[in-house]
Amino acid sequence: MQYDPIKRHLGEIFNRTPFLRKVFYGLLDLLLLRAWHVHRELRKWMSTAKKESNVLDAGAGFGQYTYWLHSKNKNLDILSVDVKEEQVADCNQFFSSIGASKVKFEIADLTQFHHDNHFDLILSVDVMEHILEDVQVFKNFHRSLREGGMLLISTPSDQGGSDVHGDGESSFIEEHVRDGYNIQEIEDKLRSAGFSQVNARYSYGSPGKISWRISMKYPILFMGKVPKALGLLILPFYYVVAYPIAYILNSLDCRMKHPTGTGLIVTAVK
To answer: Domains in the chain, start-ordered, CATH in brackets?
Structure first.
């Protein structure tokens, strides 16, 4: 399935007013288990980071993580980059409308982008599975971080992270260039890029796998098969029943240590 057309349609709906955009961010924070894991790591970083740190949101998409960081600490200087010109323009317009003067969005190709020794934190959520030249990007991240700066990555694992569970199966998301990372593989690639402290753990363990199907996969498949207006009418009723179950499963997934999982949360320090 191609995910980008669905994202574009959602953007058309929620870009209409700043209030709707904030509602959209709130829904993403509630529904996406990866957001729960990422927020957990970001809280740890913020507990010891300088209040006026420089942050790069690498592959910012809709800008939901930029918004979350800005809402927690308005002193952060945040540069958010993406390859999609339309999303960058939409995000700049939204953040300007809410007076976020320390947030800026730019168009950038991560295989070429670097700001030497500039950032205290680089965040990359659901990006690396879309980039073939991943080692080059990791080198650019390392080059762009200050000494002691941290890189935080969320990406699918090779344990079914793109909903691929065997030979011959294709990724649920067609835009992925790889089906997921092996823990040893991504740790080795980050060390080869210069990172000294690398830690990778599984997310989307047993509870998370079920939650993802209930809260994301089935609704996305449904939206791809019915008229958009009908889908948007039905989905709220679906989530009234499904979300309490997903909430419990998400909570469990964040609290458990998983021997395997379809997602990876990776931190690396320069």
So the answer is: 4-269 (3.40.50.150)
